[in-house]
Amino acid sequence: MAQNYSSEIDYEDEKRIRNRIEELRRGRKIITFVSGKGGVGKSNLAVNTAIALSQLGVRTLVADADFGLADVDLLIGLKSRFSLRHYLSGEKKMFELAQLGFDGVRFISGGNGNSRMLRITVDETERIMNGLRRIQLPIDIIIIDGQAGATDNLMKVLQLSDEAVVVTVPEPPAVTDSYSLIRNAQNRKVMPPFQVIINRVTDTADAASVANAFLRLVGKDVDEASLSYIPEDSAVRRAVRRSEPCLIAEPDSDFSRAVRQAARRLIGIPENPEPEDVVDGVRTKIRKFFGNKL
Q1: Which among 147, 154, 237, 283 has most CB atoms closer than 10 A?
Q2: CB 206 within 8 Å of CB 170
Q3: How many angstroms from the chain centroid is the CA of residue 224?
């Protein structure tokens, strides 16, 4: 059962959420989380964002498309007997792979450590994406945890997605790699509309530096409404060690609060006021720092 955050959601907010969910149920949406490099927290954010959406009432499924290196099941503490490999072989239908996880979120494994999935072709990736699009389950949003880097398989996933979320951290190599990924996908004409999450922010200077870098590199594609900031938080490491998503293990942590805001932004619901200590009020401070640039 979804956790109740009624103390954070007033009547008008509930009405906005209901209306948005009704809109989402008119057509299933696929949103793919990507990153220019590994180790930026992409999988963790994909899982926790899915839980945040489910807590709002959005029927959500997470599909791990980091084929052969999939680790989402480890983050949520589920042992998957079947994976997308069994769909490709014809042994299972797509809906038969879905397991029920925390707060009603369904999950499909990409097959961790499976050599067959490491050799997956672009045509097989397309089969998987089409199977997910048509999955026979009551799902509003499918969150896909994509591969890191600009692989051919990821390009196919992006081509068949409705939206993307680019995850980076406040480090020059990560920002550069994210820019390369975006430009590569745009040059191939497969990049859907996207948002950016800057993860592991420790202070305003960190966030401002990365925001400025993205504005200079892909400014015409990114505006304030599509930028989210997630703080560095020891609660994430504690949750990972327990094989639980942070939104479940520590729902009042700064990380969890920021992810809930990012999830709202992802589906077009105005942000709900959160305590100022989340990312040290980073969004407000960045507006002041950059003025009208954001």
Answers
A1: 154
A2: yes
A3: 18
Torsion angle in degrees (nearest 10) through CA of 81, 85, 88, 90: -30
> Could you list the mean pLDDT of each consecutive 10-residue stretch along the chain, which spans 294 residues?
51 89 94 95 96 97 86 83 93 96 94 80 97 97 95 97 95 89 94 93 76 70 76 96 95 96 92 55 53 45
pLDDT score, position 285: 53
Question: Are 53 and 45 a contacting pair, CB within 8 Å?
Answer: no
Q: Which amino acid is at 29?
A: K
Helix (H/G/I), strand (E/B), else coil: 36: coil
- Whether 230 and 259 have beta carbons less than 8 Å apart is answered as yes
Asked whether 282 and 269 are in contact (CB, 8 A), the reply is no
Closest-CA residue to 166 (of 86, 79, 94, 227): 227
| CA 196-54-37 angle, 5° bins | 30
Between CA 246 and CA 123 the distance in angstroms is 35
Give every CB contact of residue 5 below 8 A, 6+ residues apart in sequence: 55, 260
What's residue 77's pLDDT? 80
- The rounded distance, in Å, linking the Cα atoms of 244 and 242 is 5
Angle between helices 282-290 and 204-218 (to 10 degrees): 60
pTM, 2 dp: 0.89
Phi, psi for residue 110 in degrees, rounded to 5: -95, -5
Q: From the DSSP assignment, how many helices (H) and strands (E) are in the chain?
A: 14, 8
Residue type present at position 184:
N
Q: Give the C-alpha separation, 241 to 213, whole Å.
A: 33
For residue 55, what are its two tokens? 């807590």
- For residue 115, the model assigns a pLDDT of 76
